[in-house]
Amino acid sequence: MDVERGGSAPPRTPASDKESAMPLIEVKQIAGRTVEQKREIARELTEAFVRATGAKAESIWVTIEDLPKENWATGGTLIADRPA
User: Fold this and answer.
1) Which CA distances in Å does 13 have to 21, 44, 65?
2) Domain ranges, ordered by start, for the chain
3) pLDDT, tens digit, for every residue of 24-79?
4) Which of 31, 45, 51, 57 is the most interior residue, by most CB within 10 Å?
């Protein structure tokens, strides 16, 4: 936004809010990965966010949503309808 033309700058999060912020990382994927793979996904995403932002790992939420192939499409075609 153009502050010089009367607009307002976007709100900034003070550095002290790092501890209170609750970042949420959402993963949507086709169903089929194991619980162990999901653990690894959650761990890796959390570690990457910590490295990039300095946030505490305990404050980071990761959700993993498994979608059946018949609920996911790309290019107008359901994944369930594509050849294996």
Assistant:
1) 9, 25, 29
2) 19-81
3) 999 999 999 999 999 999 999 999 999 999 999 999 999 999 999 999 999 999 99
4) 45
CATH topology of domain 19-81: Macrophage Migration Inhibitory Factor (3.30.429)
Active-site hit among 10, 11, 14, 23:
23
Classified as helix, coil or strand, 28 is strand
26 sits in which H/E element: strand 24-30
23 assigned to active site: yes
As a whole number of angstroms, the distance between CA 69 and CA 81 comes to 8
Token duo for residue 36: 């162990």
Indicate the SS3 state at residue 42: helix
